[in-house]
Amino acid sequence: MAIRADTARNAYLRLRRRLKPPGSSLRPLQTYSGHSATIWSIAFVPNSEHVVSASEDRTIRVWSLAECRGVGRVIKRGSSAEVVAVSEDGNLLAIGGVDGKVEIWDTKSLQKVVEAKEGHSSWVTSLSFSSDSTRIASGSDDCSVSVWSTSTGERL
């Protein structure tokens, strides 16, 4: 009877997330190194085997999950990169930083496509693409949200 009670208790605790299932643990599949300061943001590139990271060291790096290493050139900025976002089609990369700027880059060529015409007056803390990739919304430490055209950089 005690065994049955323990089994029921363990099942209940697992359901309540108080006890990990036997043999479970969160372990990294791979660790990538290359940044020299805090990494503030990461994003998967949809439909690919790549991850993008933004760091306080003023760089954005693309990592290949298949090759377990950095790929392409490193994007260097004039200020710390705080946040990255990748469009749903995987073609565009948005970068925001402490300088209040929002930049749009091509994920394949790693070339800047457009920079927002105006910036926020403080750090860009969040970014999100529209589902059709024609707009990017940015949130800032200046307590504002702006929506930008990804083709012209104009505030909408």
Automatic annotation (TrEMBL):
Keyword Zinc: no
InterPro entries in UniProt: Quinoprotein_ADH-like_sf, WD40/YVTN_repeat-like_dom_sf, WD40_PAC1, WD40_repeat_CS, WD40_rpt
Keywords: Repeat, WD repeat
Taxonomy, superkingdom: Eukaryota
WD repeat positions: 32-65, 84-115, 117-156
Record-linked SMART domains: WD40 (SM00320)
Protein name: WD40 repeat-like protein
